[in-house]
Specification:
single chain, mainly alpha, Rna Polymerase Sigma Factor, Chain: A, Arc Repressor Mutant, subunit A, 2 domains, 80% helix, 0% strand, elongated
Amino acid sequence: MLSGLDLITSLKNGDHAAMQDIYSRYWEEVLDSAYKRVRDEEIAQDITQEIFISVWENRQRLIIESSLSAYFKGAVKFKVINYFKSSIVKEKHKEDIALLIGTQTEASAESMLMLKDFNQQIDNALLDLPEKMRIIFSMSRKQEKSIQEIAAELNLSAQTVKNQITAAMKLLRKKLSYIMFIVALILLT
């Protein structure tokens, strides 16, 4: 059994066995730490998976100053903070859009037409995505499946699913940027 320092050295050299050993030793500790902070098993699993994927992807640049255990505690803390920041931002955007289209008050005919047009534009942009990307994105956003669920269902790696979702978001942002501009104009008037 390799020591923590030897594991890190082997990992930096691209040793898959070292990564497997690190995962076996620390995944439960990382999962427990994430779960204690978010109190949601699925989110804790996603955070855990993201941390280990990040360790592998960034293995050559990895700087671990004390121990792997301390490194993972810091990584969990960072990922959980980012998760909550992201959740707050998403909720704020939902509230802003709801106010914009008047769903929290009596919706006007004009705002309902705008909403219908926005939805149509989004659907059209989704149709322009490559088929596999569209399926993965739809499973993630519309069916609200986790990366692991999608990967298992489509027999893909979690990293492939993440890459497809990221690429889809970039394409959609580019295609729909004018909608956000219109929303911003309406909110500012």
